[in-house]
């Protein structure tokens, strides 16, 4: 059907490449591009020889001119951005300059500030409309599948959705004292930032990891979950009509949080530059270099993830609850594509989003989040490409009433 340029060569990019090669009827030709071309070449060497033609290239994703030159030379139908969130805008600029559709998995954040907002990318809406191009934002799992899950619930299960709790649980064990499951810098910035959730049109801010619950997850069991801010809250609260509250929760072990607190206390998680041997560096940059590479966790990690949405609202005038989720096995992911489940659950939806843009199913000029499109083809593709979803119409609920009372004070 067409050609895709994949920018990035880390753990998620590796999954995207594997899945594009599996889906050769759509992805007839791909180019893997990164600052470190040897990583791209290694992926090509591993997967070359099938129906999908694979190219590699070196590119600095911070440099729009380099990106434009690469895109013009390869001529893709879509650019799949699985580089760093700091590079979203330069890649979007390059897509506009070359007339190519755009897909990413995480919203832009400025390097100098730990701030997760869509405003910078939403500001491109008119430019993409005028260019007749689609920019699909957040086509990973969370954000991504979680947005599709809410759109599915809105279309098929509810007349009105009032409450959404997104729960992201990783029960995998990699054997290290401390490691992050994706880019250490992005991961630590996310966790150490203040929590936030949305209720009745307002954002309520909490201290980092201040709010904790215990939730019994299918196939994983009871886990400590902590309230975080996550970017899909911003878009879902805007796009799901009638919503009263949406929150995001993630699991962390005591060991993980203890290590993180020590690192934070000694300043290693800071993004404030310090002088070291005559150079200005951010401590978190140094920390990210000494921690295990997330791409190396695949062969070590055992256990499962469970990510889903607990939804409460009205159907035919009656209260209804609904839980839609995916359980993913780390070892099964590694056996299939050589990655752990965190990379797998992000990379598969990135391929699916790009496929739906390329084949015209989700192609509409402008800048959109996944929940703004028809969820059905995406939900069908999840079952086909390795992330089958499950549902419950009688799930265990988080304590909504207690939170409602607390928020009204």
TrEMBL record:
Q: Where is the Saccharopine dehydrogenase NADP binding domain?
A: 5-136
Q: Which InterPro entries match?
A: NAD(P)-bd_dom_sf (IPR036291), Sacchrp_dh-like_C (IPR032095), Sacchrp_dh_NADP-bd (IPR005097)
Matches recorded under PANTHER family? CARBOXYNORSPERMIDINE SYNTHASE
Q: Where is the Saccharopine dehydrogenase-like C-terminal domain?
A: 140-386
- Protein name (Swiss-Prot/TrEMBL): Saccharopine dehydrogenase
């Amino acid at each position: 059907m067409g050609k895709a340029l994949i920018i990035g060569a880390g753990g998620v990019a590796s999954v995207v490449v594997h899945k594009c090669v599996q889906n050769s009827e759509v992805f007839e030709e791909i180019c893997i591009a990164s600052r470190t071309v040897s990583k791209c070449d290694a992926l090509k060497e591993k997967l070359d020889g099938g129906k999908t033609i694979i190219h590699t290239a070196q590119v600095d994703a911070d440099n729009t001119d380099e990106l434009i030159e690469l895109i013009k030379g390869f001529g893709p139908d879509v650019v799949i951005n699985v580089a760093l969130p700091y590079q979203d805008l330069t890649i979007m600029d390059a897509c506009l300059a070359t007339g190519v559709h755009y897909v990413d998995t995480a919203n832009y954040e400025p390097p100098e500030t730990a701030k997760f907002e869509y405003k910078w990318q939403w500001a491109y809406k008119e430019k993409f409309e005028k260019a007749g191009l689609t920019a699909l934002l957040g086509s990973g799992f969370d954000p991504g599948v979680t947005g599709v899950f809410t759109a599915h619930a809105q279309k098929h299960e509810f007349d009105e959705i009032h409450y959404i709790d997104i729960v992201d649980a990783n029960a995998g064990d990699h054997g290290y004292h401390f490691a992050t499951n994706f880019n250490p810098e992005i991961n630590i910035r996310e966790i150490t930032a203040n929590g936030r959730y949305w209720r009745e049109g307002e954002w309520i801010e909490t201290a980092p990891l201040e709010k904790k619950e215990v939730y019994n997850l299918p196939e994983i069991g009871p886990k400590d979950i902590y309230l975080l801010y996550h970017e899909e809250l911003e878009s879902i609260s805007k796009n799901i009509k009638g919503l009263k509250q949406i929150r995001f929760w993630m699991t962390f072990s005591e060991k993980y949080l203890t290590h993180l607190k020590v690192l934070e206390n000694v300043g290693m998680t800071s993004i404030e530059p310090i002088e070291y041997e005559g150079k200005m560096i951010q401590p978190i940059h140094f920390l990210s270099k000494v921690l295990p590479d997330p791409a190396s966790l695949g062969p070590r990690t055992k256990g499962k993830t469970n990510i889903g949405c607990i939804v409460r609202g009205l159907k035919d005038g009656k209260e209804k609850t609904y839980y839609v989720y995916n359980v993913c096995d780390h070892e099964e992911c590694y056996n299939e594509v050589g990655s752990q489940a965190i990379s797998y659950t992000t990379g598969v939806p990135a391929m699916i989003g790009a496929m739906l843009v390329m084949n015209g199913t989700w192609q509409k000029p402008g800048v959109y989040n996944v929940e703004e499109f028809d969820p059905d083809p995406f939900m069908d593709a999840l079952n086909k490409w390795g992330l089958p979803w499950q549902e419950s119409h009688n799930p265990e609920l988080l304590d909504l009433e207690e939170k409602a009372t607390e928020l009204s004070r």
